[in-house]
Amino acid sequence: MRTGVKADKVTHVTLWHGVNPPPNRDVLQKLVNKFNQAHPDIQVESLYVGQQDQQTPKILAAVVGNAPPDILWYNPTIAGQLVELDALIPLDEMLANSPVKDEIDPTLYTSMEYQGKIWSVPFATNNVGIFYRPSLFKAAGITELPLTWEEFRQVAKKLTRDINNDGKIDQHGVFLPLGKGEFTVFTWLPFMWSGGGELVNGYSQTAAAVELQGNQGAIAALNFWRTLITDGSAILSGPERGYETDELIAGNVAMQLSGPWTLGQFQETGIDYDVLPIPVDEVPATSIGGENLFLFKTTPQQQKAAFKFAEYTLSEEFQTELALGTGYLPINLKSRQSAKYQAFVDQVPQVKVFLDQDKYGRSRPIFPDYNRISDSVGRAVESVLLGKNPPAKALQKTQQRLDLIFK
After folding, report:
1. Pick from 152, 217, 229: which is nearest to 188 by CA?
2. Structural contact between residues 27 and 321, judged by C-beta atoms closer than 8 angstroms
3. 7 band by pLDDT with thresholds 50, 70 and 90
4. What are the start-end ranges of the E strands in 191-261?
5. Rounded-to-integer distance, Cα 125 and Cα 329, Å
6. What is the gyration radius of the CA atoms in the chain, in angstroms?
7. N or C: more exposed end of the chain, with fewer CB within 10 A?
8. Per-residue pLDDT band at 23 (split at 50, 70, 90)
9. DSSP state string for 271-286
10. What is the DSSP letter of 17?
């Protein structure tokens, strides 16, 4: 701590997050340290509290027990739930007075707003693409990248190979996420949207309006994933571990759904890798991911200090450093256009795929009970991948469960 600031004058701010993989956490910590050095009267403590599925019970327990963190890093889908609990401060006024407001990517506002108010600010953004190993494509004689579902299916078949001729498959075409958690749903939704499906039809943004039974886009997307398994082209992750990239890095699979948050990790390994957009059925689509920062109701002094830190995370400097260190896409438009970031994109051209896909990105709903919708969708995906139910039946069962809860 710098001299001249008494200990009792320091405002301590707690940030809970689930930044992953660990090298990305180091990048965040360096940036937090930078803020703390520049603001001796505010000290931010950054705490890793687990992956998002593990975080939710902790967050809700902290809110109910009246001991929340000052700032929460989380995907925007939790907004409605926290607003219902009266746990958050709206950020409209503070943001309106902030010079950084006009620098935020306008496509991200749908993830910030609920019932006419702003409840969070974006920390970083990303979307889902398909990482692949060009050397494995070349070895299998594949010269063109798959752009449609059918092309993807055929390429996945060609990439599934018995390389040492011992009668066993040593390399599979694609790695799919198993589990009913948010990662599975997040990476599956682009296929539902590409197949022409919607979670909610019309403008009614409530859990009761979710329509899965007879949802042709959802049925098509589940059929497509199941076909990759019945073809023998796909292997499944461990339960709730679809984000792990070990199999792709080892060359045991040739393609995997992931996002720019793993770019740093791939660069460090020194393997050959590239990215292709989500293959298209009816329309191009991807899921917009990334996390927002939520500020909890505490004391006026804490809230003011917490917003000061949030403002720092929105800045061009923070966003550029975060993007260069982690592969996340900057939420700050000045950062995206900066010479420093453009030089990074030239060095890591894989980033361009995610930047180009951004315009087809869709945000997940942020109404209350989205977590229950996600859990139910995840169960349907899991049951189809494991061959327990055909797609239409899985979605029918899911709809019946949701109708019991919400209708």
Report:
1. 217
2. yes
3. low
4. 234-236, 253-258
5. 5
6. 22
7. C
8. confident
9. ---EEEPPPBSSS--E
10. E
Q: Structure pTM? A: 0.86
- State pLDDT tens for residues 85-94: 999 999 999 9
Task: Count the neighbouring beta carbons within 10 Å of the beta carbon of residue 355.
Answer: 14
State the CB neighbour count (10 A cutoff) for residue 338. 18
The token pair that represents 390 in the structure block: 């055909």
Stretch among 25-34, 160-169, 248-257, 260-269 having the lowest mean pLDDT: 260-269
Distance of CA 129 to the CA centre of its chain: 11
Six token digits for residue 9: 């004058």
Closest to 379 (Cα-Cα) out of 407, 402, 345: 402
CB 108 within 8 A of CB 170: no
Q: Name 117's bridge partners.
A: 114
**Cα(137)–Cα(173) distance, rounded to whole angstroms?**
10
Q: 380-403 burial, b if ≥16 CB within 10 A, otherwise e?
A: bbbbbbeeebebbebbbbbbebbe
The phi and psi torsions of 232 (rounded to 5 degrees) equal 85, 10
- Report the alpha-carbon distance of residue 162 to residue 227 in Å, rounded: 20
Residue by residue, DSSP assigns 104-123 as B-GGGGGGTEETTEE--EEE
Helix (H) or strand (E) holding 367: none
Distance of alpha carbon 33 from the chain centroid: 25
Q: What is the DSSP string of 146-211?
A: --BHHHHHHHHHHT-B-TTSSSS--BEEEEE--SSSHHHHHHHHHHHHHTT--SB-TT--SGGGB-
User: Contact, 125 vs 287, CB < 8 A?
Assistant: no
- Supply the DSSP symbol for 296: B
- What do you get for the CA distance between the two ends of the chain, in Å? 56
Token couple for 280: 């298209």
- Residue 205: the pLDDT is 75
In angstroms, the Cα distances linking 35 to 31, 39, 45, 287, 391 are 6, 6, 11, 31, 50
What's the DSSP call for residue 363? P
Beta strand 129-132 with 253-258: parallel, antiparallel or unpaired?
Answer: antiparallel
Contact of 194 with 254, CB cutoff 8 Å: no
